[in-house]
TrEMBL record:
There is a cross-link at residue 83 (Glycyl lysine isopeptide (Lys-Gly) (interchain with G-Cter in SUMO2)). GO terms for molecular function: ATP binding; protein serine/threonine kinase activity. This is Protein kinase domain-containing protein. SMART domains: S_TKc (SM00220). It holds the Pfam family Pkinase. It comes from Haptolina ericina.
Amino acid sequence: AQLAEEAIIWSSLSHPHILRFYGTVGGDSLHVSLLEYARGGELFDRIVRMAEFSEAHAIEQVSQILSAIEYIHSCGIVHRDLKPENLLLESHDDHAAIKIADFGAAKRMGEHAAKTPCGSLGYAAPEQMLASNSPSTYAEEVDIWAIGVVTYILLSGSMPFDPKTYSPDRLLLSFPDDIFGGVSFEAKGFIRSLLQVDPTCRLSASAALGHNWLRGPEEVYPTTTPLPTPRLLKELKDSGRMKQQWNYAAEVRSTARSRAAQVGKRRWAQTQAAPSTRSRGVSVSSSSAVETAETAETAEAGDASDGAEEAEEEELQLALPAEVAKKLRS
């Protein structure tokens, strides 16, 4: 059910900064998604390889992310799992367009408000973390929080909050001089406006796009001053702290299959496809629902802290199946 819901939501979206979803093939045991091929890979991997990185680069990238999120929210949808792995680049060009991917946790807002804890540790908003222990709900503000975290990392190469001690009562935002010494006051103010613990105090996507940091003249602040982001970001990635995963063991689902669909880590990898597919700009991502359900049952019986990891959906790298090729030709 969750895989079908993702397909419905993703296929309904069309925006220059959202990875295109072409459709799905397969049955109950194998799910194959046809996605736009993002040749540039993950955004943060590109930054690590850059000789220099400045606020000007960050402004361009954050503006694109916000543009896509503004559109998503206008469609009544919340992504709920914005993180570095889901920010891809269209090409290897220096100013390649960002593409937001992975709508496995996305939800349509309306009469059914979001209550389920979900997201990735370090990027999830406080209200997402408290969802399992509170009758309150959350909405699109969780995406704004995640963008604040991503912006902080873009400008510093470090996490704003330690994932090892990540909890609502320990979210104290700071800007160490040894890292943020070359970052403008406007940029710090922008981050503060997104990383508000009270979701009602956060800027909306539309308001964030109008912030002085994104719209102000470049001569007002040092947008071209080289930042230590590439070096520090490499150290951060190597430490593994950017990919600390949420512990979903507390989520209750009626069956192992539905639980697996909810908790599985949904990373749309750029898989190896046949040359004919790559030339069409399509990548193929697949997962086995049966294996996922079996893994979920194991995770239920195992240690709770390992639940999310054991319930991770297996991603298979496949040559283009005949039915996929047929669908592409139709």
